[in-house]
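User: I'm new to structure prediction. If I give you an amino acid sequence, what do you actually give back? Let's try with this one:
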Amino acid sequence: MKTNEKPADKQGTKQKSKRLGQVLAEAVDTIGVIIQNLIKGFEDKPLPHETVEVLGYDDAIRWFLRNKKEAKGAKKGVMVKQVNAKGTLTIYSVFLDREDKQVLRETGEPFCRAVQAAKLDDELAELFADGDFVEIGG
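Assistant: Good question. You get back a string of structure tokens that encode the predicted 3D arrangement of the chain. For your 138 residues, that looks like this:
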């Protein structure tokens, strides 16, 4: 009887792992779509860029903290990293609502920030170590 239980347990574990893998794949796909939509939105209506030599963690996070109250309906923030062919980084900081849509200013403009930098400080670089998308809060 125990020999019959082990394959069932292994099969159950395989099914759970498969379901977890599907959930993770869907989450990655969703994040990818959010990033594509954010960047597409910026391409459709280019933002003025701030330019700095080094963008630091403190400066990046302070922007969210300073602007949270004014960003009505914001449930979280995201930062998206884009690197151009010359190696220049652009970090887009955006507020999202509970449906992961961009929060707009009263003027209808996206409530966001774009910063071009030659590099990131160590702490901010560590946040982006696993990819080009970082969620703040939420």
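You can read the tokens as a compact description of the fold. Here is one thing that stands out. The two ends are 48 Å apart (CA to CA).
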